[in-house]
């Protein structure tokens, strides 16, 4: 079933309309009371007293905003080039609304706001430009893998004092991403922030409706609702959906994944764990080597190496190679991130597809998925002394539009990407809930680029150089040492 455009348009129209509330004015009442006779010649007149409701005192944050004045200063938001954070072609409703909000804030706080994404050397000279006292902007963007090294280099402002001074509260789930808040806190300092993203940052699962219907593989939506969408069910479907020619060459895969780390990470999270995480004492731990993680590794090995029903990218192919195989109708089930969804819309994909959560692992009783920061905002160390003013500006900017919910912001951005209402529901649920779920620290710790790395141990298994148990036994000490070294100077203190 194609997506219901009428419903989508109605939802957008409702969410974007301006709502005016008419409030009644208080009336004045004349009250007569018994008054003692005057003791002198003056005439005592009686006047009605106007009843006024007591005024609530302003909160610390609202008072700070009432006093805020930038004195005409220019504040620069600088984004990485190519990230699509500026509404250059006028096609983004959400970006256009944010731009309009910025115009309001310019007048409200006597400030000029400039947005830039034209720095071709954005990533290369980030730390040096901040160290020299001339960063590209007052509010900037970084990827999670850069957080630790930039904080250690003294490039990122600690926002703790500014938050205390202004009362700006990053635990407000309507305004701020809780994953970014929690996992950008080290040594009791707060270094990053972001509004909740209207998209899913971790891997989720797609299925090709044509293949499922032609091969009578069942309805994944029903499987999810009945809690039958499990690793075992995916194994059964992938084996049936894999087509081989007489020479053994596979012409249709039952299962596919973008990168091996995407599939392994998704399986770990769908079994209630991660490849690496922080324990209760804030210590980074290689959980892939523990029981739940090893079950995920073994399941991936079975699909890729033993059963040979899964298409994968070992790092030697173009990053979108397996995505294109799914888009072209050669893969029944696909584990991937948002680029799959964006490519399916942009190409567009001829076959209908559905979206479901990662299949349930054997050690959990419900569908689970992790989260990641992806990208986050920070204030360069250069501007730490004015972080209070910048946070007040951000706090206003992150207010939800009147009449809109977070679910509305997801639908506004992605309702045109999916093909049916059930997919939109699952996508929205994942987008809203991953923000408070377990966090995968393998990326922020650099385990995907280290040596040994997650990709290296995956490749050893699929090349037949050892079982998951063998490979992890050979590499787990080194990988744990890498985690220890990475967090030697910065202890995780997020809550």
UniProtKB/TrEMBL annotation:
SUPFAM superfamilies membership: Periplasmic binding protein-like II
Name of protein: Extracellular solute-binding protein
Biased composition (Basic and acidic residues): 39-53
PROSITE patterns noted in UniProt: PROKAR_LIPOPROTEIN
The keyword RNA-binding appears for this protein: no
Signal sequence extent: 1-30
Region (Disordered): 29-64
Tagged with keyword Chaperone: no
Pfam families, A to Z: SBP_bac_1
Coiled coil region boundaries: none
InterPro entries from the UniProt entry: Bact_solute-bd_prot1, SBP
Keywords from the named record: Cell membrane, Lipoprotein, Membrane, Palmitate, Signal
Species assigned in the record: Holtiella tumoricola
């Amino acid at each position: 079933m194609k997506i219901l455009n009428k419903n989508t348009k109605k939802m957008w129209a409702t969410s974007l309309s301006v709502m005016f509330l008419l409030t009644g004015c208080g009336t004045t009442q004349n009250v007569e009371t018994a008054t003692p006779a005057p003791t002198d010649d003056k005439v005592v007149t009686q006047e009605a007293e106007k009843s006024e409701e007591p005024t609530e005192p302003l909160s610390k944050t609202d008072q700070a905003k009432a006093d805020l004045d930038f004195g005409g200063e220019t504040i620069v938001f600088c984004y990485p080039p190519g990230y699509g954070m500026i509404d250059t072609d006028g096609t983004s409703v959400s970006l256009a609304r944010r731009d309009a909000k910025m115009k309001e804030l310019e007048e409200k706080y006597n400030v000029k706001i400039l947005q830039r994404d034209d720095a071709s050397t954005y990533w290369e000279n980030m730390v040096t430009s901040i160290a020299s006292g001339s960063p590209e902007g007052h509010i900037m963007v970084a990827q999670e893998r850069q957080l630790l090294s930039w904080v250690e280099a003294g490039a990122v402002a600690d926002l703790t004092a500014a938050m205390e001074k202004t009362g700006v509260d990053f635990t407000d789930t309507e305004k701020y991403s809780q994953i970014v808040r929690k996992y950008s806190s080290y040594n009791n300092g707060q270094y990053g922030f972001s509004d909740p993203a209207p998209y899913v940052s971790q891997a989720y699962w797609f299925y090709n409706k044509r293949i499922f219907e032609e091969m009578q593989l069942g309805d994944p939506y029903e499987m999810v609702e009945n809690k039958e969408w499990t690793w075992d069910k995916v194994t059964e479907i992938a084996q049936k959906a894999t087509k081989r020619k007489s020479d053994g060459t596979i012409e249709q895969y039952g299962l596919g994944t973008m990168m091996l780390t995407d599939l392994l990470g998704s399986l770990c999270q769908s079994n209630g764990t991660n490849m690496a995480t922080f324990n209760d004492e804030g210590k980074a731990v290689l959980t892939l080597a523990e029981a739940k993680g090893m079950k995920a590794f073994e399941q991936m090995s079975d699909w890729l190496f033993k059963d040979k029903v899964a298409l994968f990218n070992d790092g030697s192919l173009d990053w979108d190679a397996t995505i294109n195989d799914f888009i072209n109708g050669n893969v029944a089930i696909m584990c991937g991130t948002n680029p799959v969804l964006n490519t399916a819309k942009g190409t567009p994909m001829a076959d209908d597809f559905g979206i479901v959560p990662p299949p349930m692992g054997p050690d959990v009783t419900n569908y689970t998925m992790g989260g990641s920061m992806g990208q986050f905002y920070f204030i360069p160390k250069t501007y730490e002394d004015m972080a209070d003013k910048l946070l007040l500006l951000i706090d206003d900017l992150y207010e939800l539009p009147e009449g809109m919910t977070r679910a509305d912001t997801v639908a506004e951005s992605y309702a045109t990407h999916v093909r049916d209402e059930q997919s939109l529901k699952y996508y929205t649920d994942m987008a809203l809930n991953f923000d408070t779920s377990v966090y995968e620290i393998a990326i922020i710790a650099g385990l995907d680029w280290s040596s040994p790395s997650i990709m290296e141990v995956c490749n050893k298994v699929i090349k037949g150089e050892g079982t998951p148990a063998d490979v992890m036994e050979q590499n787990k000490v080194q990988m744990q040492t890498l985690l220890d070294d990475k967090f030697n100077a910065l202890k995780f203190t997020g809550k």
